[in-house]
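ARCHIVE RECORD
Type: protein–small molecule complex
Small molecule: beta-L-fucopyranose
Source of inputs: curated submission
Record status: active
Notes field left blank by submitter.
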Amino acid sequence: MKKLLFLASALCLMACKSTQAPKPVGATPHPRQLPWHEMEYYAFIHFNMNTFTGMEWGTGGEDPKLFNPTQLDANQWVKVIKDAGMKGVIITAKHHDGFCLWPSKYTEHSVKNSPWKNGKGDVVKELSDACKKVGLKFGVYLSPWDRNHAEYGREAYVTYFHNQLRELLTNYGEIFEVWFDGANGGSGYYGGANETRKINADTYYQWDKTYQIIRKLQPKANIFSDEGPEVRWIGNERGYGTPTSWSSFTSRPELTGAPRFQHQAEGDEDGKNWIPAEADVSIRPGWYYHAREDHQVHPLEKMVDIYYCSVGRNASLLLNLPVDRRGLVHENDVKRLMELKKVIEADFAHNLATQATVKATDVRKSHQQFKAENAIDSDTKSYWATNEGVKNASLEFTFAQPTTFNRFMAQEYITLGQRVKKFKLEYEQNGQWKTIDQQTTIGYKRLLRFPAVTATKVRFTIEDAKASPLISNVGFYNAPILLLTPKVVRNKKGEVTLIPADEATEIYYTLDGTEPTKQSNRYTAPFVVSAPTELKVVGFDHNTQQYSAVATYALDVPKTLWEVLNISADEAKNSYKVIDNNPNTSFAHKVGSQPAVLTIDLGELLRLRGFTYLPSQDRWASGTISHYTFEVSSDNTHWKKVSEGEFGNIKNNPIEQRISFPEEKARYIRLTAVRTIDNAETILYGEIGVITK
Ligand code: FUL
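STRUCTURE (tokenized, with ligand):
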């Protein structure tokens, strides 16, 4: 009897609760997406054939024998990933060049024909096993585009692609994400045909069938592609989300270029499906390991910025670690990852909101279940909710004493849909409310940074929402100040200027490759660097005795005597921008149907070992060179071609390209744009340089 009574009252309670409970609004996450949201930060690993050829996009004709890591240790990767605070890892099981990191039974183009472990190795297995041991989630990147396969473009390849997918989803345990890259450059080796093959990416791979395979073999896996179905691309490879970010999304294949990228980043307020954004970025300029980028691991402050602009903008952060030729995550990358971990931990060490009392202007009817305190209990399952239809309401926080903070965090209870359209953060000063920040969306997580505020009363107001807002967590934090690395500017004449982040920062530098400390050269005035040199710079705050992260720059010969030749009088006014050492200026060279050639006089004979091409850094620039030839001459009459090829992945990742060739003595250089990313008639150059050391 007692039992029955208990059951009846429990049922009544559930029923009463459910009548008051908010209803879902718009698109809502599938249960497989909720654990994905909670991961927030996980690793990408780009490691396979390109690691050994120095390419970003292999052609597909590479010899499997080139793949030969000397000390591959997947346990080191997962240790680093776990220590860094990441929750999982996705590996490039097969990139565009078609080389497979597992011994697929459907191709010879794999580890089984490499010298590594005498062809008996399986990188996918080693990594998935290592993940299981430490409790990291595991995912796979399988490139649909395959520049190696002879049948690519025909039906037989699609069967091959599906078979490979089955292998990866059957033999390596649970998969949390399957990553399908949208890139396709057309040309490739294709079993020796060496030609360009065009496919319709919407229909060729038979996505319905592909997804069925995944659903059947790995029902918990989230599928990533440019536009979902579960996870969408954020529209850039820099790791940055936009302040407005909806997880609801309607695919709009008709959009191209900048509007498409913006749509991918922002999503749709009334999007039909729940397809949250994932921000992918590499810790270095390239996705693959290149020793030449050892000094170009992104500065700590940039990594921190990326974190706030991805995780803090309702996206997940997929951070790439380019495993090196040894088969290890490089020391420099490990160092930066741990520095980032320390900053994130320190920034969010104490949620000051838990020390405050909180009052809401509106609480969903007569039940404790939706009380304001739910927003500060650190539980994502409980939430504060307003009454049906109340879309404008505040939480007011009162601290026992004046409290200083410079970070704000908010989370919506997304199980029932993303709702908030506009919110504001204020503090009280002398009886007046002052705005700290005003923003649009929140979603799974929103983080705000602002100059420190000291206050006893703080107000978080939802100003507008799609339906009554459901706020699961709110936080205020007082993050330590991060000392910024000084900026380095070098002009055409080779003169170097170091700029401190603020007046309190002293700058120290070295020119001999050693780590700078306050015992090194103290910067007081610009100085000239006239030969190839490695410059290392650090900031030091005398008051706090704190160092910034060290920045390293590979400086080559100055461009003092350089001149752009054979250019119209009109364009000559701007052509200096391609040799002014300023990455932020670009030169637009209108060529129409003429060959797109740029000739530079270096003013003296130099021993050249390579060249650099920085595409325009304008957002979504047109006219970026994708295929080139590079020639040198000592008299501007007789030319020798020293390099030609493709700048792989330059469209999505427009970083400086560094191309080496056997040493040549020359005074003139000539870069020809054989093809651009968008068949433009105006070629856009950020900067051209030479490598002499
Ligand atoms: C791009 C690819 O083309 C790059 O090589 C890299 O894999 C990046 C993550 O996605 O679209």
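CURATOR ANNOTATION: The pocket of beta-L-fucopyranose is lined by residues 56-57, 181, 183, 280, 287, 649, 652 (CB under 6 Å).
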